[in-house]
Amino acid sequence: MHRPVLSCVRIAAALAASLFLATCGDEPAQKQATATPPILQQVPPPPHAPAPQSAPPAPNRTSPAASPDVPMGSGFDFYVLSLSWSPSWCAENDRAGKTAQCGGDRTYGFIVHGLWPQNERGFPSFCPSRDSDRVSDALGRGLFDIIPSMGLIGHQWRKHGTCSGLDQRAYFSVLRAARERVRIPASLETADARRRMSPAAIETALADANPGLTPQGVAVTCGGDRLDEIRICFSRDLAFRACSEIDRGGCRARDLTIPAAARP
């Protein structure tokens, strides 16, 4: 008579236990289904780590940066900066040393002959200008460190500067800027000693001393076997550039004498 009661108690206990386990098993499943996904945050670098940097731009190995501040000329393709070896000019034109260039207290090496507007074929000259043909003493004398002659300064303005599309002051500021962009190598710098070099060696020395300048952008001129001038080509914003017509007109001598300056 007591066994059915005991069995009922055991059955009831088993049902209660299974209901409890079922309830416990469902609760985590509900939470996992409804839980908000975690927010991903960027982990900052450790304090000692350097901040990430963008890669630097590749260097320009063909030409240095142009000069954005120089006045921009117009009406031509490019410039030729002509640098005259003063001892050669003096030996040919002023042996007596009557000019400041050849007989003054200062010994000159390369001086600026001129800055010439040039086209791919030929060049303009003696162009109409609103400016006076005459260069003032105040403007001219400020150039004596690189062009030691008022006569040469005035001639360069009338023949070449008037074709630059610039006024006098702007033209001569570009002329000075062009000269300052050229570094004369040590092998050509001194005017104290006579020496010999080939035109190709002179062009290579200049190219090596001036990043962006190539031998195709330089011409060496000569009088007989004596160095006369070097001519360097620039874009209108004063970047070095090649100039085939100028280069073809260079000296064909095998070797050149670079005279020393005469002592005053």
From TrEMBL:
<keyword id="KW-0732">Signal</keyword>
<dbReference type="Pfam" id="PF00445">
    <property type="entry name" value="Ribonuclease_T2"/>
</dbReference>
<protein>
    <submittedName>
        <fullName>Ribonuclease</fullName>
    </submittedName>
</protein>
<feature type="region of interest" description="Disordered">
    <location>
        <begin position="38"/>
        <end position="68"/>
    </location>
</feature>
<dbReference type="InterPro" id="IPR018188">
    <property type="entry name" value="RNase_T2_His_AS_1"/>
</dbReference>
<dbReference type="GO" id="GO:0033897">
    <property type="term" value="F:ribonuclease T2 activity"/>
</dbReference>
<comment type="similarity">
    <text>Belongs to the RNase T2 family.</text>
</comment>
<dbReference type="InterPro" id="IPR001568">
    <property type="entry name" value="RNase_T2-like"/>
</dbReference>
<dbReference type="GO" id="GO:0003723">
    <property type="term" value="F:RNA binding"/>
</dbReference>
<dbReference type="GO" id="GO:0006401">
    <property type="term" value="P:RNA catabolic process"/>
</dbReference>
<dbReference type="InterPro" id="IPR036430">
    <property type="entry name" value="RNase_T2-like_sf"/>
</dbReference>
<feature type="signal peptide">
    <location>
        <begin position="1"/>
        <end position="22"/>
    </location>
</feature>
<dbReference type="InterPro" id="IPR039378">
    <property type="entry name" value="RNase_T2_prok"/>
</dbReference>
<feature type="compositionally biased region" description="Pro residues">
    <location>
        <begin position="43"/>
        <end position="59"/>
    </location>
</feature>
